[in-house]
Amino acid sequence: MTVTYKLENQRWMLTEETQQVMQALSAKGQDVRFVGGCVRDAMLGREIKDIDIATPDHPKTVIKLLEAAKIKAIPTGLDHGTITAVCNHQAFEITTLRVDVETDGRHATVAYTDNWEEDASRRDLTMNALSCRLDGTVFDPFGGIEDLKESRVRFVGEAETRIEEDALRLLRFFRFQAWYGTDVFDEEGVTAATSKKHMLKNLSAERIHSEIMRLLSAPNPMPVINVMLENQIFSPFLPEILSGGCLARFIPLEGRRDPLVRLVALLEGGEAKDKVTIPDRLRFSTAEKQHFLSLIKPEYEIDSGTDEMLFKEALYRIGAGLVSDLLRLQVARDGDDFKNKNIQYRAKIVEEWRPVFFPLHGRDLIQAGVEPGPKMGRLLKATEDWWIEQSFQPDQDQCLAYALKV
Description:
Layout: E1 3-6, H1 11-14, H2 16-25, E2 33-35, H3 37-44, E3 52-55, H4 59-68, E4 72-77, E5 82-87, E6 90-96, E7 98-103, E8 108-112, H5 116-121, E9 131-132, E10 137-140, H6 144-149, H7 159-165, H8 168-180, H9 187-195, H10 205-216, H11 222-230, H12 245-250, H13 259-266, H14 272-275, H15 278-281, H16 286-296, H17 308-318, H18 320-334, H19 341-352, H20 362-367, H21 374-389, H22 396-405
Parallel strand pairs: 3-6
Antiparallel strand pairs: 1-10, 2-3, 2-9, 4-5, 5-6, 7-8, 9-10
């Protein structure tokens, strides 16, 4: 039975763009509502990132209504009833109410409906089944509001059924637990996830990658990571993850929250030869792959005993951010902490480091009479090495004099 709740006026609901889109969609008296994350996070007083809207109208009707109000309509997911409205450069995702006709664990064949409870019943979690009218009336068909209050992450209906419809919900269950739950888990959800984990093998790498990165972005994902390890949830797609110990030690040390660095910490103990294949297996972007490989196969071995000059050379060549991550990862691996004087000293060097730039260029050597070619390249490299050894102090004239002397 659906219960209602009154949500106080929200700034994002009162903006000109939101008002225009909602008025356009309800021009003929339709019951149009906000759904998903914006309702859930508004109930918790959290920042709203995206505004999703649901309507009983067919997608083609949605497009006509938006165009009649001079709002741009983009058919971004027409096969699944989704239209993106763009009003004053702000995007709104609008989806027609749906029911699942057939599912295979990865994709669903849907049919449109005008029944709000039917649409809510196909959603994954109770907190995601909430909907809200423009006047602030929240509709809660499955106890999502109470679950939010209790920080309880629970599937809509039978957990196994929800996962069988779409295996990604298994990972979403854990991700939402990390962001909205506590260290107390819904037993039915964990049991269902454990029994259906084999379905994760059929998910696309991109979907798994997205969920894992979002899970690892949570303030403290360790309670969730530990339960996933206990139930071998990682084994179908990242069998290299064997323990959460290094990650648990790393999180209190980290300078900033980076899910990719956290993943490296979580992989500690696995075979190095297997780790290098992860970026391709999980479809990392080029930038993510380069960052990941620079962490698991670093150009410089950074730890509390790294020679100070070599440490500063690393700061110059690969940057303070990467050096800091490598130092903190090594501290976590060693089970040490930042009370160690050597670690404190190197951490201070990182903190006080400011980028420096080698003052000599090829054009400077050409002007001094050096002919372009491999020899000039070797000369520049030798001079740069000397400049680093001199603690980056020599200026351009001194570097040029050294190069010509060499």
